[in-house]
Amino acid sequence: MIIDGKQISQSLKDAMKIDVDALAEQYGRRPCLMVIIVGDNPASRSYVRGKIKATEYCGFDGHLVELPEDVSEATLLAEIDKLNNDPLVDGILVQLPLPKHISEDKVIAAISAEKDVDGFHPENVARLWLNQHCILPCTPKGIIELLDQAGVEMAGKKAVVIGRSNIVGKPVAKLLLDRNATVTIAHSRTKDLAAVCREADILVAAVGRAEMVTAEYVKPGAAVIDVGINRTEEGKLVGDVDFASVEPIAGAITPVPGGVGPMTITMLMRNTIECFLNRVNNK
Ligand code: GUN
Q1: Is 51 a catalytic residue?
Q2: From the CA of 195, how far away is ligand 1's center (Å)?
Q3: CA 276 to CA 58: how far, in whole Å?
Q4: How confident is the model at residue 231 (pLDDT cuts 50, 70, 90)?
């Protein structure tokens, strides 16, 4: 089974669009997401375009704040402060990566935790690991949603996550743990990675290496979630999973493009609605 993230995203966005119209009616305004981009990294530009397009589709208010590559850290922090204090702004997202002269940690921590639609703020990360109410990071949240929609049972299953990033690997491992999977986080120093992965009923690949996960990494029937977005030398977009060799043996698999990517954006829309509701209800 191919898990169609594009189609699942579309139906979730269609439902949100209707909800947002009702919220606008009820509260007299629409959820508002502000997206900040620094510089003109082509990949970041393309991701940000997708995010803005989705906000428009779902009927949010939203704007892109474009800052030059050489903007000072102080100017960026001042811009965030302005948005933190704007009562009509519900969500703030700063597209990563940032230029080297700006501290990502400082910038993430400067965003008000209530407006942190990425779920990257230390307060939200701590709350996630303490099982407290929090904004969940978009890609991990989208992965769990895809597994649910595909009917993949997580409780009691072995899950292996390849990659230990703050954005994907670590939080998705925590969410799988919360669904009662037995979770292994594998990484570049894991010995006999293929053998470790072959144990998995659910395999999440978030390494950023084109088509690294081949059939020998996959137990027949496993659910395989491909988080990678890599460009080959020929300019083709491919995942971390070698789709051609893995698809015939996997029980379920997400394609690239059209798998996890669209779900990340859709979960960003959900998080924006969540921040809006928390704010209008003074939570
Ligand atoms: N860069 C790559 N992924 C992400 C993401 O989920 N959020 C932000 N803000 N930047 C990113």
Answers
A1: yes
A2: 31
A3: 14
A4: very high
Give the pairing type, strands 230-231 and 237-238.
Answer: antiparallel
Say which of 61, 116, 118, 240 is annotated catalytic. 118
* CA–CA separation, 138 and 118 (whole Å): 6
Model confidence pTM above 0.85: yes
Which amino acid residue places its CA nearest to atom 1 of ligand 1?
96
Catalytic residue flag (residue 132): no
Classified as helix, coil or strand, 63 is strand
Q: Would the pLDDT of 283 be above 80?
A: no
Digit-coded pLDDT (tens) for 12-41: 999 999 999 999 999 999 999 999 999 999
Distance from the Cα of residue 2 to its chain's centroid = 20
Q: Which of 211, 216, 252, 245 is nearest to 229 (CA)?
A: 211
**Closest approach atom of ligand 1 to CA 268:** 6
Contact criterion met (CB below 8 Å) for 128 and 171: yes
Domains contained in the chain, CATH given = 28-114 (3.40.50.10860), 138-260 (3.40.50.720)
- In angstroms, the CA 83 to CA 189 distance is 41
Ligand 1 geometric centre to CA of 26 (Å)? 31
* In contact, 229 and 261? CB cutoff 8 Å: yes
Ligand 1 centroid distance, CA of 143 (Å): 15
- As given in the structure block, the two tokens for residue 95 are 């597209």
- Whether 95 is catalytic: yes
Sign of CA dihedral 145, 248, 220, 232: negative
Q: Output the furthest CA–CA distance in the chain (Å, rounded).
A: 57
